[in-house]
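Methods: holo model generation. Sequences were used as deposited, without trimming of termini or removal of tags, and paired with ligand SMILES retrieved from the corresponding compound records. Each pair was processed once, and we did not select among multiple samples. The sequence and flavin-adenine dinucleotide SMILES for this entry were:
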Amino acid sequence: MEGDLALHSSEATDPVVVIGAGLAGGLLALELAGLGLPVIVVDGAGPAATPLSYGGIPWWAGPPGPLDSWMAAAPSRWRRLEARHGPLGLRSCDLVLHWPAAADAAARQRQDGVLQQVEGLARRHLGADQLQHGPPLAGAAGPAAAAASGPGGTLRLSYARVDPGLLAAALPGALRAAGVRLLREQVAAIEPTRAGWNLRMGAGVGGSGAALPARQVVLAAGAGCRALWPSLPQRLRVSWAGALLVDRPPLALPPGDTIVMPLLGQRQGLEHRSAQLQAPELSVDVGWAPSGSGWLLGQSSLVRPDPGQGPPPDPHHTEACLRQALAGLLPALAELPGRFVQVPVSFTHPGLPLVGAVAGDPGLWVFAGFGGPFALVPALAPLLAAAIAGDPAALAALPGAAPGVGGG
Ligand SMILES: Cc1cc2nc3c(=O)[nH]c(=O)nc-3n(C[C@H](O)[C@H](O)[C@H](O)COP(=O)(O)OP(=O)(O)OC[C@H]3O[C@@H](n4cnc5c(N)ncnc54)[C@H](O)[C@@H]3O)c2cc1C
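and the model returned the structure below.
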């Protein structure tokens, strides 16, 4: 029924309205509530990236610069969050990076360069016993093996992860316990008013069509941010990511939680090139991660020249490409029964997320476009929460993340 979601006048402070209850919106809402601010989270329960994530916390992989120390703090931030809000799925785990036999000297040189880079980043934070070289994954010799210029291999490193299935199940309860109000509504539009903002809820099936006034609104809607506020910087873009959900482990590995990823992943490079694309491009990375009682297998990424979300790519074609890439590692992987799922994911092509006030729109904030969000979000959410609560210096350590209007 159409109506007003007006707030009780007894509330001393206007609630901050956060749009999106995924990793970004959920953790930001917990920080805002921790500062004593009333918070409403609005989420339309549409496709969300967080439950389909591998949930790896690349805490030692931050690029040299201000983000490095924030990322390195991620495990302790997650432990602090769990101490306050109960289990959120934090696990210690290993990361296994794998690479095939190199087809020629140039490929070998490239592998060696990336391997050195990864080892250099990891050694800043990990002891020698936390990095172990090993043989290629079983059966992963691949077609290049015959002409190989260098053998394949693996590098096992100490890592951490948040189980995405457990996080998605635990977040709504943690939000409620922290006093956050959770509205299951799709925001159709944000309109400026004299007093701030008016959120117009969707009026379709299941939508109330109601209006929610607010002085402070945070866009933490992942891939949905641009549709809500089209003048966000062009560097905020959307990819479509897909993975197979399978119920048994893809390969026998030593016991313990393990995330497996290719040493030379395609996704990051595709995101970096996104602003130069002339046509949609699909990449597939062969890896897997535990999730709940099952596993996520492979990761497809479709990036289009347009920064908006667009429709999901053809699932049959994308799943076929993903299975073909899995077969390149081990034919049996391609045959595993599973459910293929695709979700839109926000990213920025230079890699730095959008964190802060939207220039020229007082009271409108954005928290989106993360690379390595399971490391960055728990570290940056307290900074943004402090800024929203009125600390003008809270985001000073992150100059490049300020979201201007339009442009790059
Ligand atoms: C296969 C895969 C593997 C990944 N692996 C990793 C990894 O190992 N480590 C890592 O750090 N990251 C990884 N990622 C990326 C990471 O999962 C995402 O970047 C992150 O979860 C995004 O969180 P978010 O809160 O910004 O967005 P989302 O989780 O997408 O949440 C956005 C929410 O906003 C809601 N919403 C959108 N529009 C509206 C609207 N108009 N009104 C109301 N609600 C709305 C949606 O319903 C959704 O719930 C991976 C992603 C995928 C798909």
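The chain has a mean pLDDT of 90.
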